[in-house]
Amino acid sequence: MDLVFGEEFQVANYLMSIAGGHIVSRFFSSLYQLGILEQFQDDQPKHYNDIAKIVGCDPECLHSLLRFFLPYRLFNEVSLGTYTKTSTTKLFMKGGPLYSLMDCLTSDKHYMLHKNILETLRTGQNKGPEALGCKTNNFYESFSDPVWEKGFTSCMDTFNDIALPNILASVDFSPYKTIVDVGGSHGKLLRQILGKYPSIQKGINFDLPEVNKGKVNEKRLEFVSGNFFETIPRGDCIIMKTILHNWKDEDAKAILQVCSNALEDGGHLYIFDSIVDPHIINPHAIWLDISMRHIFGSKERSLEEMETLIQGKFKIHKVIKEVNMGCMVLTKI
Ligand SMILES: C[S@@+](CC[C@H](N)C(=O)[O-])C[C@H]1O[C@@H](n2cnc3c(N)ncnc32)[C@H](O)[C@@H]1O
Q1: How far is the CA of 182 from the centre of ligand 1 (A)?
Q2: Which of ligand 1's atoms lies nearest the C-alpha of 159?
Q3: Which of 41, 110, 183, 228 is 20 to 30 A from residue 251's alpha carbon, by CA?
Q4: Distance CA 130, CA 8 (A)
Q5: Are residues 183 and 49 in the same domain?
Q6: What is the predicted ipTM?
Q7: Where do the O-methyltransferase dimerisation domain residues begin and end (predicted)?
Q8: Which of 227, 228, 240 has the alpha carbon at shortest distance from 327?
Q9: What CATH number has the domain bearing residue 315?
């Protein structure tokens, strides 16, 4: 068959870069693991020979690695072999807004997690936890490794930095007195809600003991540990942000039942998860869907699928379209 040209070639080229994505990801991982970006903390230009000496790597390899990222403006080459940081370097270096996200995404463990994705596709069972050495198919078992737990939690934290301004601008939390964030992780969402609404009496960040470990209660913000399959604290507003999409239908129904028991009459349950429109191709949502299937054996759900999940416990009060990541507000029936 002849080689393709024009638009078809561009598509083929793009697909080839996707196919080799794991290689480029390892390039990025090497930058992180060697701490290359941090060498640019000050504003001084740096020669690759000097950086290589400090971080302990082969100078010629490092030169190629730095050059690879030049078109993406991760560095700037001011003269042959001498580099400076750019505004993009600052985003990704330690202390930058995207550092934790990239540190987790490019970590060896994240790479390992996806190595056996074919097994998931073959069986329809989530094989991701097995790749991390978990004895059950519960991904959260992997949190017994504190470094991985911290990396994953910090990554979630970064997603929040991106999502929270839009949530706070689009949702009115003023009617509530006690807000429980179920699986709230770091507590960032509640901290910001409480900051915006002095009328809210209390926020409760509910999560696993290993995640809440070391967290200290703050004014109006409590950290409560437990298992959301058993019981959660009572409130007139319950939030679950990126929780249900981590669980299979049967588990999600069980969590919803616990939420229903804990939600005060007249209160609301807020579900922040993407709402899939089966007629629209959204590459990010599909990417997330495959990841959820591999890691958790779950999926991204449509409105109709959510309606089936909540049947007998809740009804949809409204969908807040302004929330980019998706938001459904439920009332008890
Ligand atoms: C994907 S993270 C979402 C964190 C946070 N809501 C956010 O949007 O950034 C899922 C959270 O659920 C917590 N979690 C998992 N299983 C749990 C359980 N059985 N009981 C309580 N929390 C749990 C995890 O520790 C984690 O913090």
Answers
A1: 7
A2: 9
A3: 110
A4: 39
A5: no
A6: 0.99
A7: 16-94
A8: 240
A9: 3.40.50.150
